[in-house]
Amino acid sequence: GINIWCAAGKGTFGTEELIRRIAAVSLSTVVRHRTLILPQLGASGVAAHIVTRMTGFKVIYGPVRAADIRRFLEAGMKAGRKMRTVSFTLAERLAVVPIEIVQTWKIALAALAFHLLINYAAGHAISWSTFLGFIPYAGAILVGSFLVPAILPWIPGRSLAFKGWLVGIVAALLYALLANRPWMDSLTSLLILPAISSFLALNFTGATPYTSLSGVKKE
Questions:
Q1: Architecture label for domain 2-84
Q2: Model confidence pLDDT, tens digit, residues 53-105
Q3: Distance CA 121, CA 118 (A)
C-alpha cells in the first residue's frame, strides 16, 4: 500500500522500472497469461499503455491493500469501493514514525557528541546545562518526526515543508516564552528549530495519500 505510493511518488516504482524487471526475469516465458496486477497506489508512477506496448502484458490495478488481493482475485479481479478507498487514520500516519525517529536520532546523537567536543576543545566546562541546551533541538526532532504526522490533517497548507515549519515555529515560540532564555538564544531557536522540523516533515512525503511526483520535486 503506502510503500508503493512512496516509491511511485518518488520515481523509483514506475514504467521504466517495471518494463526492465519484466525483461530481466523473462516473465513471458515463466507464465502463460499476459496480465499484471499492480498495486492501485502505484498508478501515479506507471503508464499502463506503455507497459502493455513494450511487454505485451495488460495492466490491471488491484486493491489498495495487499490483504485484499485474495478477495480481489476471487471476485474476478473486481474491486469494491472499500478495496479502492484509501484510509489515513492516526495509527496509519504514525506507522512510520519509529523508523524516522531511529534514523534521525543517530544523526542527532552524533551532532550532540560534536557539540560537546567543540565545547571541550574551546576550554568550556561540560556541565548539565550543556546537555540541557540540546533539549530544544530534541524537541524539534519530535515535532518534525512525530507531532506533524500525528496532526497532519489539521495543519494548514498542502506543502509538508510548510506544515513542518508552521508547527516548528509555534513550538519555538512556546519554548522562547516559557524558557525565559536570553533574547539571542530565543532568536536562534526561532531560526533553527522550525528549519529542523520542516526538513524532517519532508520525510513524510511518501507516506501521505495526497502527494505526487511533481509535488515531491517541488518540495
A1: 3-Layer(aba) Sandwich (3.40)
A2: 999 999 999 998 888 999 999 999 999 899 998 888 898 888 888 888 888 88
A3: 5
| 123 Cα distance to chain centroid | 41
Is there a contact between 59 and 115 (Cβ–Cβ < 8 Å)? no
- The residues of the chain that CATH labels 3.40.50.11600 are 2-84
Grid cell 517541488 is found at 218
Indicate the burial class of 44 (C-beta count within 10 angstroms; 0-12, 13-18, 19 or more): middle
pLDDT for 206: 65
Q: How far apart are CA 153 and CA 168, in angstroms?
A: 16
Whether pTM exceeds 0.90: no
- Where do we find the cell 502484458? 57
Q: Which residues, in sequence order, are bridge partners of residue 36? A: 59
Q: Is 135 left (phi over 0), alpha (psi -120 to 50) or beta?
A: alpha
Q: Locate 114 and state its grid cell.
A: 560534536
